[in-house]
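ESCALATION

Customer reports they have been waiting on this structure for their group meeting. Please prioritize. Original submission:
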Amino acid sequence: MTPYISFNRQQWAELRNSVPMTLSEDDLKELQGVNESLTMEESVEIYLPLARLLNLYISARQSRNTVLQHFLGAKTAPPPFIIGIAGSVAVGKSTTARLLKALLSRWEDHTKVELVTTDGFLYPKKVLDEQGIMHRKGFPESYDIKRLVEFVSDIKAGKPNLQVPVYSHITYDITDEVKIVDRPDVLIIEGLNVLQSGMDYPHAPHRVFVSDFLDFTIYVDAETPIIEQWYIDRFLNFRKGAFTKPGSYFSHYTQLSEQQAIDKAKNIWHSINGLNLNENILPTKGRAQLILKKGQNHLVEEILLRK
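Update from on-call: job pushed to the front of the queue and completed.
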């Protein structure tokens, strides 16, 4: 017995129900990740049905808010619908988040859609160095969970103009910039840790977590050896691109030979990202309401929807 209903691509695509595609090929190129080729076919067959499902959930929540307002005899702004997207490093969850933001913002009932990543709630590099956990970046202890939970709680409470720290993948650190999030209709929050709960932070002084505030949760999945190869491919692409930019924390990797870069990427994967996946991320997959299972070509091959 399983708590999920399984769909192959064709079965899932049929649930689109004539929802129109509102993005162009150029839009998709802007949204795709470093190693991915986000095709129109993938967007139509996988993400349009998902956008339709999410819209139905959002509409149901809005109807419930109307009932509550009628009961209370007072009209108040409804809380945002919060979507959590989790998965491993290099699995493509950021692309999924960007694409869903673009699609959902085109529905007339909830045009104000914001996207926040939990990277902004990592402790600054200076703090990680002082605590001796720089090598544990991305692990539960490397996040300012209190600040992250306060942000999501404030979003649900309808507080205006909330400030979100901005993380730079170039400097590998929190920047001086902030992102302003002002009472969106829908908030998408994406990161390694969004499905983690109290079980994952046994020594935390609090017992409220991001997962407690999520209205719908998605886990982007693939077999671990496939994700490892994607991580290596991404590392090699960064070596020719992002690592060459001024101020890049990883600029020294541009001096490596191709084989040295591959070996370095494998070492980082097995000592940090793969370890974090197995210990802290993969165990949260069963908490998701929907799982997107990708194959070796980055395309979604199976969709699991919680009953």
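Sent to customer with the following note: The radius of gyration is 20 Å.
Escalation resolved.
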